[in-house]
Specification:
By secondary structure, the chain is of the alpha/beta class. It has 16 helices and 26 strands. The chain has a six-stranded mixed beta sheet with strand order 1-2-3-4-5-6, covered by helices on one side. The longest helix has 18 residues, at 172-189.
């Protein structure tokens, strides 16, 4: 069995190309929207992508299943269980025990509700898989009832490495029911042999689970021994499982509310957005400072992708600070309106090498497309240097180190706003700080007094710069970013409380 994992660190998303090299047939599981990586990998090993499988309708990114199938002619397979995946396109429904043959590899569907109601896991078997009906119910799921040997399970958002997929994404009314179902689903997956490889769709960095390890794959036996949620499920302790799963879950980005409906009806094809080639992204479009000013005077929004210190020194007024890194798309999706054209300020635009500029553009646009941001107008040619030479206005955002921030807070002139996730906050925070997670801030701006002087802090200064730029856009005049964040605060041995 040929197997290759494709992992996006900031999104924590894992997708997979599975194939039978002797037969030249392959399948892609849980593909992302910019799907050219699967085509290249399949071509390298001589596989024809015949199947595209979805473990569930995704909440955290735009799926590439429909477009990949259109390009390759592959069949789309998705859940038909419990109301199904709800896809508004032609697809083949899968139910418990149904099988998809990839050459001599069998991908057997197991209904594993919990992360979503319709959720499936795919057990990969090598050998004679026999009758598909042998999959059976939860009680005997580990016994395949044939000569096939389970090699791996593509667990989607059910069993994760050191964690399990959250169960609160389809609304509060379903959370308790789905949490119990998730416990049962993981208990079922644990009936697979201990050596069975576990390949989830969500890994470290994903907001689809509350914790999780750094490893991108595991085994059933390792999870049984080390994963607290797997241990609770294995001993059939649904209450303990629920407490562990739902404790201090990360606040989800605002764009997630759009992902499930978008994936059901299907995103705009990349070719319709001007992308060239199979899975290609939008070609770079340079905009003069004057053109950027025109767009901003209409309804466009500027996203400055430079690091917080550069943004603090000078930036276009009312622009968002979202540094270009692995989590760029997630944080744009957390704070930036999705119904407006976007203008980017790229770090390589100020005299950088053309290759570096093209790479920065590609990195930014791919992440934006995965988050459903299709209206990218272009980037500021020449960066802030060109903007200032053109005589256009700019703003700045004060940056303080941890000791200065502590001194300002001590004398009562400023107040600390901590924008980290709940689990980080509970681990220790500055005395007297107010806690509003960054992903929650756009919805809670009215809670913050505009006359207050705010020192914004996160763990390192990245998320706090995003939050500080959001406050400035909302009319807060006195805002400063704490560079180094709580990491610098603790390194300086400044006082914290729990």
């Amino acid at each position: 069995m040929y197997l290759r994992q494709f992992f996006l660190p900031g999104l924590g998303h894992g997708s997979y190309l599975v194939g039978d090299e002797s037969a030249g047939v392959g399948a892609v599981i849980d593909p992302r929207r910019d799907f050219d990586c699967y085509l290249s990998a399949a071509q390298e090993v001589g596989l024809s992508i015949a199947h595209v499988l979805e473990t569930h309708t995704h909440n955290d990114y735009v799926s590439g299943a429909r477009e990949l199938a259109a390009v390759t002619g592959a069949q789309v397979w998705a859940s038909g269980a419990r109301g199904g995946a709800g896809l508004e396109c032609a697809f083949s429904p899968l139910y418990d025990g149904a099988e998809v043959m990839v050459g001599d590899i069998t991908l057997r569907a197991w209904e594993t509700p919990g992360h979503t109601p319709e959720h499936l896991a795919f057990v990969a078997l090598e050998g004679d898989a026999g009758d598909a009906g042998d999959a059976g119910g939860a009680g005997g799921a580990g016994d395949t009832g044939d000569d096939a040997a389970p090699v791996a399970v593509f667990s989607g958002g059910s069993l994760m490495v050191g964690a399990a997929g959250r169960t609160d994404l389809t609304g509060e009314r379903q959370t308790a029911t789905l949490t119990r179902a998730q416990c049962d689903s993981i208990r079922r997956l644990l009936t697979l042999p201990d050596g069975t490889l576990v390949y989830p769709a969500h890994g470290g960095g994903s907001f689809c689970g509350g914790g999780g390890g750094a490893s991108r794959w595991s085994t059933v036996g390792h999870e049984r021994r080390t994963n607290p949620l797997a241990r609770a499920a294995d001993r059939n302790d649904p209450d303990g499982f629920a407490c562990e799963l739902l404790d201090a879950l990360p606040v989800i980005p605002a764009y997630w509310s759009r992902m499930r409906p978008l994936n059901r009806r299907g995103p705009t094809p990349l070719a319709h957005l001007g992308a060239a080639g199979h899975g290609g992204i939008l070609p770079p479009l340079a905009l003069s400072p004057e053109r950027v000013r025109e767009l901003l005077d209409q309804d466009a929004v500027c996203v400055d992708t430079r690091d917080p210190a550069a943004y603090g020194g000078a930036h276009i007024p009312r622009s968002f600070s979202v540094g270009l890194g692995d989590s760029f798309g997630i944080w744009v999706g957390s704070v930036v309106p999705e119904d407006r054209p976007l203008v980017l300020v790229l770090p390589q635009a100020e005299g950088g090498a053309p290759d570096a500029l093209a790479q920065a553009w590609s990195q930014a646009v791919r992440q934006l497309l995965r988050a459903g941001y299709d209206r990218v107008a272009g980037y500021l040619e020449g960066g802030l240097r060109a903007w200032s030479v053109a005589g256009l206005p700019f703003d700045h955002l004060p940056q303080l180190d941890a000791r200065d921030a502590h001194a300002h807070a001590q004398n009562g002139a400023w107040r600390i706003l901590d924008v980290r996730q709940p689990r980080e906050w509970f681990g220790g925070h500055a005395r007297g700080a107010l806690h509003v997670p960054g992903a929650d801030l756009p919805r809670r701006l009215d809670e913050l007094e505009k006359d207050t002087r705010w020192l914004v802090v996160c763990s390192t200064g990245y998320r706090s710069a995003i939050a500080a730029s959001l406050l400035r856009r909302a009319g807060h005049r006195h805002v400063a970013n704490v560079l180094g964040g709580m990491s610098a605060w603790q390194a300086a041995h400044l006082p914290t409380e729990r």
